[in-house]
Design a protein that fits this description.
CATH superfamily: Alpha-ketoglutarate-dependent dioxygenase AlkB-like
Structural class: alpha+beta
Radius of gyration: 16 Å
CATH topology: Jelly Rolls
Order of helices and strands: HEEHEEEEEHEEEEEEEE
Number of helices: 3
CATH class: Mainly Beta
Number of domains: 1
Bound molecules: N-(carboxycarbonyl)-S-(naphthalen-2-ylmethyl)-L-cysteine, fe (iii) ion
């Protein structure tokens, strides 16, 4: 017997929405009803394309480890940042985009006013305590009209949300397990980053933060 614990109405319940900029929204706890489905799908896809460290074009090793799913995966090496249909580690296509990833992406984008969002690239970052992501812009996607949806799981993070120049002042926003950030339009090219993750144990994910970022890259 299958119990329908989260029926369609429950999935649509209004999230606590924080508008942090013109077209940037934090949906508190939005992914919680899908958390188990997201993590089950994640465990499966990581067998095919495990987390790995990547090198920046400048020769540094990124402190977060990455994997991808969907038609296009984000990769970085000495030749630069780009999207690729093939996982360089497995030499095979990236795992399929899980249905749960698509469902959260579409529902969250819609809640933030971006209708009909269908991502073709799912980037998954895992941060151990101390890992961070320096201020950067997401500029490797073909067009900037589609929004980006980011799902936070596990340990909390302090997210930096800046302007259009690296030196512009940045707001700091705490993101917790189940929070979803949606941004697009006027805010699509803002600098953003993640401060070093503080040590801790998350009851579900242990000593890590996982971020799933869903984009239309191709
Ligand atoms: C950008 N990941 O993989 S996405 C990345 O938490 C990346 O792992 C981060 O940046 C992570 O490229 C953060 C979240 C985010 C939220 C709001 C933004 C990025 C944003 C607003 C404007 C621009
Ligand atoms: Fe980014």
């Amino acid at each position: 017997m299958t119990l329908d614990l989260f029926g369609e109405e429950d999935l649509q319940q209004p999230a606590r929405v924080e508008r942090i900029c013109t077209q940037t929204f934090v949906l508190r706890g939005f992914a919680l009803p899908w958390a188990e489905a997201l993590l089950t799908a994640l465990n499966t896809l990581l067998i095919q394309s495990p987390f790995r460290h990547m090198q920046t074009p400048g020769g540094f090793t990124m402190s977060a480890r990455l994997s991808s799913c969907g038609d296009l995966g984000w990769t970085s090496d000495s030749n630069g940042y780009r999207y690729s249909a093939i996982d360089p580690l497995s030499a095979a296509p990236w795992p399929r985009m899980p249905a749960a990833f698509l469902a959260v992406a579409e529902a969250a984008a819609s809640a933030a006013g971006f209708k009909g969002f269908v991502p073709d690239a799912g980037l998954i970052n895992t941060y151990a305590p101390g890992a961070k992501m320096s201020l950067h812009q997401d500029k490797n996607e073909r067009d900037y009209d589609a929004p980006i949806v980011s799902i936070s799981l596990g340990l909390p993070a302090i997210f930096q949300f800046g302007g259009f120049e690296r030196s512009d002042p940045a707001q700091r926003i705490s993101l917790f397990h189940g929070d979803v950030v949606v941004w697009g339009g006027l805010d699509r090219l803002r600098f953003h980053g993640v401060l070093p993750i503080k040590p801790g144990q998350h009851p579900v994910l242990g000593e890590q933060r996982i971020n799933i970022t869903l984009r239309k890259a191709g």
